[in-house]
Amino acid sequence: MIPTKEIVLEAGKRVAPYVHRTPVLTSRLLDDISGARLYFKCENLQKMGAFKMRGAINAIMQLTEEERKVGVVTHSSGNFGQALALAANNLGVTAHIVMPSSAPAVKIEAVKAYGGKVVISEPTLKAREREANKIVKEMGAVFLHPSNDVNVIVGQGTAALELLEDYPNLDCIMTPVGGGGLIAGTALAAHYFGIECKVIGGEPFAVDDAYRSLKSGKIVDNTTTHTIADGLRTHLGDINFPIIQSLVSEIIRVDEEEIIEAMRLIWERMKIIIEPSSAVPFAAVLREKEQFKNKHIGIILSGGNVDLLKLSFFKR
């Protein structure tokens, strides 16, 4: 079932007191380079540094008082774990975050700093799911999926809702595609509040499961995870995929060098920090310039949580 217009609108009102209304930045130079008019929605400046704060807040606020008392649990190696920890802390709810042993120490410490109770698991999805299920069974905590949960999806869409309130005449909104929550939520917002506004995803060739899923009509997995865009190594879910099938126009794939160049341009020309995943939709615009020529394009900069020492263009 596709959430209604009223559900999307209510989510916007619900999360507003708990998130930043992030700015929309423009760059004449990047417009000239791309041949389009670009509007960057800066979720890299969101609380905890990513759009996922929106979905976490919306999902927790939809729980009953009894559910809040027993707490929430998720498994995440990065941004959603931090988002859920911070959102839960703000609302007085206990959050258990299952993180793989391979997660960067800086991310584990960030979750703890936001008040999350970290449980370390083996670095496999099955192990993470097993630990999360154990917490659900033993403590009664409510499991919240990072991207395949209706309330999370609708919450993520509030970034695009704000963007369209500021710029209602966009021809298209671009997002990166990982687990599918952001692009599905964005597609809902564009469908209900845009004016013939398309939604297009950007995805690395190395992890192009969403592109292949749309082509085949069924969810397929990735066989590799070798991309600099580490936030996009996850796969679609059975709740967000039908929304994507129905409302997303296409997904454009980009290679690793294109991601790096797009990221470098945004850092250098816009003077803001974004993570590699955020650069993917801009890289897609640069790859398909003719398609976007003279169009008004919104781009969701999904996050800004980076390990500076691992940046591809960082030289010590």
UniProtKB/TrEMBL annotation:
One of the protein's GO biological processes: D-serine biosynthetic process
Key words of the record: Lyase, Pyridoxal phosphate
Domain Tryptophan synthase beta chain-like PALP positions: 17-303
Requisite cofactors: pyridoxal 5'-phosphate
Signal peptide annotation: none
Molecular function terms, GO-annotated: ATP binding; L-serine ammonia-lyase activity; magnesium ion binding; pyridoxal phosphate binding; serine racemase activity; threonine racemase activity
Matching InterPro entries: TrpB-like_PALP (IPR001926), TrpB-like_PALP_sf (IPR036052)
Pfam families assigned: PALP
Similarity-based family: Belongs to the serine/threonine dehydratase family.
Protein name (database record): Serine/threonine dehydratase
